[in-house]
Amino acid sequence: MRIGKIITLCLLTALMTGCSWFEDTTTPEGYVRHCIRLMDKNALYAEGEAWETMKEQTLEKASQITTLEEAHALVSEAVGVAGGKHSILKPPMEEREGATEEKVPEVSLSEDGIIVVKLPAHSGITVSDSLYTFTVFDFLAAHREAKGVVIDLQDNVGGNMYPMLAAVSPLIPDGIFIRFKGRKSNSPVTIEYVEKQAGISEDKAFKLPASLPIAILTNEWTGSSGEATLLAFRGLENVRTFGTPTAGYASSNIPYLLSDGYTLVLTIGQDVARTGEVFCDDPIAPDIETETPLEDAVNWINERNV
């Protein structure tokens, strides 16, 4: 079953990218050439002198290799130039080391009426998107009288941003909240689209008051989709951020499943906030840098409610 799924996904990738590469990837050289074509067409930094030099050198070396291990090494080196630090060649799931079990979001209401939401990283492998989203969404719906909300994005290294955003969608104004700016594209994303993807119907969707104080906590491990969730609140008057600067992976990626079960993850766009600010490889600084972000966030919310 797994082999059949891999073959099907590989064929779909070939059709989507317009590459007649299926027979090509039976050789290490063909494998590398296919990956270079994907990078050349889609990766954010795959243009200019640095990339052209890397591409030429990689293809030259590819003609001399005899194993897939050598192919993986060449692709891994090239993808860093084509896509930057957020791009990677990933082995199949069963070969990955250091994988941690996913966690369900934690939600609580303090004695002074402040909701605290802990949004962990999420890929949907061991915790379903629906459980992740509605653990938070339903809690917000049941506590609409809250005096403020703390969204803890500390240690949220990313994953699938849509369940994260859908979970806190009652706190995000309708309309476009982020854009993904690629080499030749500019793709807007609306909160309505996020809600629809999460299965939140129009009659179930709701908004908490726009004046409700919202504090967001970040640290050096807040990255990728964690940063996209942070940027969904960028520019809102009722929001303040606390903690330390983020990891600096505020960019959009797309995965390409390869014929051997590896996945080529390419960065294809920068994150653009509603303010027009463009984010990508640099850390995002909080409004208030502090080593006690939760305490400072709660104090700020309480001051706003005086």
In words, what does this structure look like?
The chain is α/β, with parallel strands linked by helices. The chain contains 9 helices and 12 strands. The chain has helices at 2-17, 28-42, 49-62, 68-83, 129-142, 161-167, 191-197, 225-231, 293-304, and strands spanning 88-90, 106-109, 114-118, 148-152, 176-181, 186-190, 214-218, 239-243, 251-257, 263-273, 278-279, 288-289. Strands 1, 5, 6, 9, 10 and 11 form a 6-stranded antiparallel sheet that branches. A 6-stranded mixed sheet has the order 2-3-4-7-8-12, with helices on both faces. The chain is elongated, with a radius of gyration of 21 Å. The N and C termini lie far apart (60 Å). The relative contact order is 0.14.
Largest sheet: 6 strands, antiparallel
In round numbers, the mean pLDDT is: 91
Order of helices and strands: HHHHEEEHEHEEHEHEEEEEH
Q: End-to-end span in angstroms?
A: 60 Å
Q: If you compute it from the alpha carbons, what radius of gyration comes out, rounded to the nearest whole angstrom?
A: 21 Å
Properties at a glance:
single chain; 306 residues; disordered N terminus
Topology:
Elements: H1 2-17, H2 28-42, H3 49-62, H4 68-83, E1 88-90, E2 106-109, E3 114-118, H5 129-142, E4 148-152, H6 161-167, E5 176-181, E6 186-190, H7 191-197, E7 214-218, H8 225-231, E8 239-243, E9 251-257, E10 263-273, E11 278-279, E12 288-289, H9 293-304
Parallel strand pairs: 3-4, 4-7, 7-8, 8-12
Antiparallel strand pairs: 1-10, 2-3, 5-6, 5-10, 9-10, 10-11
Helix pairs in contact: 2-3, 2-4, 3-4, 5-6, 6-7
